[in-house]
From TrEMBL:
This is DUF5718 family protein. InterPro entries: DUF5718. It holds the Pfam family DUF5718. It comes from the Bacteria.
């Protein structure tokens, strides 16, 4: 994935921005409707001379920033691996091929950050992706109908739920509505407030044919709202077939020292905080 451009969608789950303390950053950004996401940010731009050129996906560890005053939260999300097609340097198609668990861990208190992306790529262990699950069709009636996302935090020898367990179809924008919105933003989003000029990012990246895009973080439970990540914590994010797995079974799985390799219909991230 080192050649894939990495993007994230902000504000695609009701109330997450308020929980993350970022709602004021988007107060003057209005969407197509009240439930619309706020925009798209880059978290990784291959070969960029900026900090966003640092490859930041580490599926074993969340590596905390060198600035020890920074507070970090995990962000449980669903990631999509997509193909992009262009005509005259405009995106004409966004084609989702795979979905997976994704951790968009973020710094919450960097007062010098002028862009959302500056809180995202904080080390070479600030993102993670789970096993890719093929998409048959990214629309109602497809495989994603049967999947949910859950997340857990293990500390002091106990595993607790971290974010709300949510069906994928409960995202504010999903399926065709989300893909059409992503295509529009890749073509039209200009630099404004905490967001970057996306057509310029695509141009500088020589119009990549593949991207990873995290489509929004779920709402936090009380534990995640009150406790920032500490060294030794274990973060687990799971995208799973909710017709085959219960939350109790997931808790058992992520409690194991070694997650079985033969599990089906599930995408798991398990990172130690270092």
């Amino acid at each position: 994935m080192k050649k894939y451009l990495g993007f994230g969608v902000v504000g695609n789950f009701a109330n997450h921005l308020e929980q993350a303390g970022e709602s004021n950053d988007f107060a003057d950004i209005t969407g197509e409707d009240k439930d619309a996401p706020k925009g798209i940010f880059p978290f990784y731009i291959p070969d960029s001379a900026s900090v966003l050129g640092r490859y930041c996906i580490n599926n074993q560890a969340i590596i905390l920033p060198t600035n020890q005053s920074f507070k970090v939260q995990a962000e449980p999300e669903v990631g999509l691996e997509c193909d992009l097609e262009y005509l005259d340097n405009k995106v004409t198609k966004v084609i989702p091929r795979f979905f997976m668990a994704f951790n968009d861990a973020s710094v919450r208190n960097d007062e010098n950050a002028t862009k959302l992306s500056q809180k995202k790529n904080f080390s070479d262990g600030s993102k993670a992706v789970g096993l890719k699950i093929p998409i048959d069709k990214f629309s109602s009636g497809g495989v994603c109908d049967n999947y949910s996302i859950a997340s857990f935090l293990k500390f002091d020898g106990k595993v607790q739920e971290y974010g709300e367990s949510s069906e994928l179809i409960s995202y504010s924008y999903f399926y065709e509505k989300l893909i059409n919105w992503i295509k529009d933003k890749l073509n039209t989003q200009k630099e404004h407030s905490v967001l970057e000029d996306l057509p310029e990012v695509l141009r500088e990246s020589c119009y990549p044919s593949k991207i990873i895009i995290a489509i929004g973080a779920t709402r936090y439970l009380e534990l995640a709202k009150q406790r920032f990540l500490q060294r030794g914590d274990i973060v687990s994010i799971v995208v799973f077939n909710h017709k085959k797995y219960t939350l109790e079974r997931l808790k058992e799985i992520v409690s194991m020292d070694c997650i079985p390799a033969d599990l089906k219909d599930i995408s798991i991230i398990r990172q130690e905080v270092r």
